[in-house]
Specification:
- Helix 3 runs parallel beside helix 8.
- The longest helix has about 90 residues.
- It is flat and about 155 Å long.
- The protein has about 450 residues and is of the alpha/beta class.
- It has 5 domains: about 100 residues, OB fold (Dihydrolipoamide Acetyltransferase, E2P), CATH 2.40.50; about 160 residues, 3-Layer(aba) Sandwich (Rossmann fold); about 30 residues; about 90 residues; about 40 residues, no CATH class.
- The mean pLDDT is about 85.
- Helices cover about 45% and strands about 20% of the residues.
- Helix 3 links the parallel strand 6 and strand 7.
């Protein structure tokens, strides 16, 4: 046995892995990790296993079913993601790994949120509506391109346009297509072209790149400049899988700059073929119309009008005479029948009116008698009420006492003297009797 072997602390592999796991979990805990996905595995258990890697290293990741909510991101090979989870060690394999709790597309966190918010706001404003989109001219004479003068996009666009119709006029309006300040420059260029140039159609775009590289075409200032353009605009940004806000606002979306050039103008041979087809259709239509008119002319030449016009005239005269007889008979029938029917209806109406008149007269007589009885009753009732009111008034009449031999003395103003102290010596008073009145002065 080697010297000092009794003082050694020898650990088993499992124990060492447990200690490594404990150290990782205690010292690192939960962290955010960004990398590219590979070896993605999603077995029937519902768990997801994959490897996170960058240019220098790799890390195993496990995302268990219980931690994955509905609508969670599904990793895929080649996808760059940002995950948040617990750093630990897989004891059996002795591998460091992260137990994922949430994941998002790397670089698309805040930007993707801004993208979705702006897209939804512009959609509600109606900027994506098909009704406001303009149609592209079939064969534009002047084509404008708003892009970088040094990028691959302008070379691809020019290659396609020169190959298809080299005699078209093409104007480049150079702008930066990525980085800070690119979006206002693009919007300003669009407004400038609309104000200063007579351009039939505009191609706006750039080649592929990351979300950050394409971001100027997701800015609101560019979207609104496209929306207010009087010139039809094709948005040709990135690759086929890339979508930008400009794609939804533009009159037409092209998956690539080259495709945008192909959409703006067709192949020259295709136009020639289309013209030939239209020429053939026109010639065929003219031939059909010529044959139709010739046939009609032949039928007209064989008509009796050109060979025996007198015979044709006699036949039409006979038809007119026959129609005249039928018309007269029909008119007599139509006149006689209504007259007979009118007489019958007149008798019926007379009988009905007589019966109605008798019934109404009887009803009027009954109403008259009833009204007379009611008026007599009402008159008697009112006379009775009048007598009662007259008796009450007679009782309440203050001058009634005069008929019983009493008198009423009052002052010049008409107020009745109820107390001798009301008057003073020399006051003029008036005394009312049953017949006449007396005027006197108090002594």
């Amino acid at each position: 046995m080697a010297e000092g072997s009794s003082k050694r602390q020898i650990l088993g592999v499992a124990e060492l892995n447990r200690r490594v796991r404990a150290l990782l979990e205690q010292n690192l805990g939960k962290v955010w990790v960004e990398g590219e996905c590979s070896n993605v595995s999603a077995p029937s258990s519902g768990h997801v296993y994959f490897t996170l890697k960058d240019e220098q290293a790799q890390l195993q990741a496990a995302w268990f079913r219980g931690r994955r909510g509905p609508g969670a991101l599904m990793p895929a090979d080649g996808m760059k993601v940002r995950v948040y989870g617990q750093i630990t060690a897989y004891e059996r394999g002795g591998q460091v790994q992260v137990i994922v709790e949430t994941a998002e597309d790397a670089g698309r966190g805040d930007l993707q949120k801004r993208f979705e918010e702006l897209k939804e706001r512009l959609r509600k404003e109606g900027l994506f509506e098909r009704s406001r989109k303009q149609a592209l001219p079939m064969l534009p004479r002047h084509i404008g391109v708003v892009t970088s003068p040094t990028g691959a996009a302008i070379r691809d666009i020019l290659n396609v346009l020169m190959r298809r119709f080299p005699d078209r006029r093409i104007t480049l309006f150079p702008v930066p297509v990525q980085g800070e300040g690119a979006a206002p420059r693009i919007a300003k260029a669009l407004d400038f072209v609309n104000a200063q140039y007579s351009v039939d159609v505009l191609i706006v775009g750039r080649g592929g790149g990351s979300l950050e590289d394409l971001w100027p075409f997701n800015e609101e200032v560019v979207a609104r400049a496209i929306a207010r353009s009087r010139i039809p605009i094709i948005s040709a940004v990135g690759h086929e899988i890339d979508f930008c806000i400009s794609d939804f606002v533009a009159d037409l979306r092209a998956p690539t700059p080259s495709a945008g050039a192909e959409l703006v103008i067709g192949r020259k041979v295709e136009f020639e073929q289309q013209v030939q087809r239209l020429e053939q259709r026109l010639a065929a239509a003219l031939r059909r119309r010529q044959l139709e008119y010739r046939s009609r002319l032949e039928r007209a030449k064989g008509h009796d009008l050109f060979h025996e016009p007198q015979k044709l005239l006699q036949r039409y005269r006979a038809q007119v005479a026959a129609l005249d007889v039928r018309m007269r008979q029909s008119l007599r029938s139509r006149v006689t029948q209504p007259q007979r029917r009118l007489g019958e209806l007149g008798l019926q109406l007379r009988h009905q009116l007589e019966r109605k008149l008798q019934e109404d007269q009887r009803h009027v007589d009954e109403l008259g008698l009833s009204l007379e009885r009611r008026m007599q009753q009402e008159l008697e009732r009112r006379q009775q009420r009048l007598k009662q009111a007259e008796g009450k008034l007679r009782i309440l009449n203050p001058y009634q006492v005069l008929d019983r031999g009493f008198s009423i003395t009052r002052l010049e103003d008409g107020s009745v003297i109820e107390d001798a102290e009301q008057v003073e010596t020399g006051t003029l008073i008036e005394t009312l009797t049953r017949k006449g009145s007396l005027r006197s002065r108090v002594e």
